[in-house]
Amino acid sequence: MAPPQGPRAPLEFGGPMGAAALMLLLPATVFHLLLAARSGPARLLGPPASLPGLGALWSPRALLLWLAWLGLQAALYLLPARKVAKGLELKDKSRLRYPINGFQALVLTALLVGLGMSAGLPLGALPEMLLPLAFVATLTAFIFSLFLYLKAQVAPVSALAPGGNSGNPIYDFFLGRELNPRICSFDFKYFCELRPGLIGWVLINLALLVKEAELRGSPSLAMWLVNGFQLLYVGDALWHEEAVLTTMDITHDGFGFMLAFGDIAWVPFTYSLQAQFLLHHPQPLELPMAAIICLINAIGYYIFRGANSQKNTFRKNPSDPRVAGLETISTATGRQLLVSGWWGMVRHPNYLGDLIMALAWSLPCGVSHLLPYFYLLYFTALLVHREARDERQCLQKYGLAWHEYCRRVPYRIMPYIY
To answer: What would be one Gene Ontology cellular-component term for the protein (predicted)?
Structure first.
């Protein structure tokens, strides 16, 4: 007889029907965006001008390239790390170990790509393969998610995620049953979270920049800005890789289709949308406007990095001089809630910085099309939804202390607005 699993978490995303719909809608959205970016009208809303046939989606060459990419990133993950960090305590009181070598993987990938280009690697051919690459990435996500679901069937109850044991196979396949699926020391969720998708995103951006230089003689200022802004963001995420160990994705969510597809397919092929748009729809950008956009991105990054660094410093050592003077609220769990500094301004100042940067990434694309602003619209919806999930969990965890925190810090993301 299986041991009791305890009370199950309430279903999210509309339950099984919502999960099934999202497993169709999310891949369809990726392909719609890829087709729209290269079409003449570049419409975000409305059907694409033409639908690709199977021959345009399936390519053995794309499959081999995709598997080689995953293999390369897995090999870089297994290299000796500059640091090995411990995750949060699990239900069984153990703490998993994680290699902190994501930035090292980014640098080594850049060196390998640079060497390849000097030897004649046709990186500019990559933009023509985005559709079949997205297709094999989507297939990979479905097959990988099935493997994860089957693996979770033999996992101990203590290894299951809070929301991944509903008993409905569609919902559990989507959300993920096991919290930290591993084979030996290789952690699938941690690997996918920041490696193949994020590094793949900036590689696709670079390929689009190279292709633009081949077509027009040199990359546009707008393309340089988009590449630079997004490389800074990815480099920052990988440099501060250890911080991901305390995020909801790692500590709460199971690893199923939602995260697998998001990490390896959604991120590289939709987050590169601005660069895709600029390749097919070049936009003039004068230096004064470029300077304003750079300032907007700098403000967003300053808020984003300042808030995250302050939170991480406080979690590691509340006595650190940089955070020792901040005002806090005590909770029944023994943890302290920050109510001054960045976290006294709004409850999620890092989300505010994220959204300001998202605006800066879209502005180089001009204002004649809505399509390059998809990321800003989507990310706003994502962060509002994630903030609501955070609120529910924090209320359950901290109780009265969370009510007091919300009274002291009434705004969620945007001061005086939301």
So the answer is: receptor complex
